[in-house]
Design goal:
One of its GO terms (molecular function) is metal ion binding. By secondary structure, the protein is an alpha+beta fold. About 30% of the residues lie in helices and about 25% in strands. A 5-stranded mixed sheet has the order 2-1-3-4-5, with helices on both faces.
């Protein structure tokens, strides 16, 4: 897989985080990017109080349709706990593996709360 330029511009994080921190239910944002970090598409998926369903197949399909080189994911934890759950960790690994087989990088996964943001990449989880 060809390397993407580093780092992604700060606007990327701001764009994905917008509206997540204060939501009272789980909400996810998926950003699809070209190799120069131009945003190709942004999708939001609403969940419920303690979860959001993000089909890996749909994310992969969208990435292919948009011609994305990278995907970034952000979701909130309405309870304010910024730590990834075991389900978050398992899902992120499965998504990264699935996208990698298609030549697409899962560049980041953030957990957003009203007071903090946890980066899977910074924590060594991605």
């Amino acid at each position: 897989m060809p390397p993407l330029p580093r780092p992604a511009p700060p606007i990327t994080a701001a764009t994905l985080h917008r509206g997540l921190a204060d939501a009272r239910f789980e909400l996810a944002a998926i950003g699809y990017f070209d190799p120069q970090w131009s945003l190709l598409a942004l999708r939001h998926v609403a969940g419920h109080a303690d979860g959001v369903h993000l089909p890996i197949r749909r994310i992969a399909r969208d990435a292919l349709l948009f011609g994305a080189a990278a995907v970034m994911l952000a979701h909130n934890h309405p309870d304010g706990d910024p730590r990834p759950s075991m389900a978050d960790l398992r899902y992120t690994r499965r998504l990264a593996t699935g996208l990698d087989t298609l030549g697409i990088r899962l560049a980041e996964h953030w957990i957003v709360t009203p007071t903090s943001v946890t980066s899977f990449r910074d924590e060594g989880l991605l």
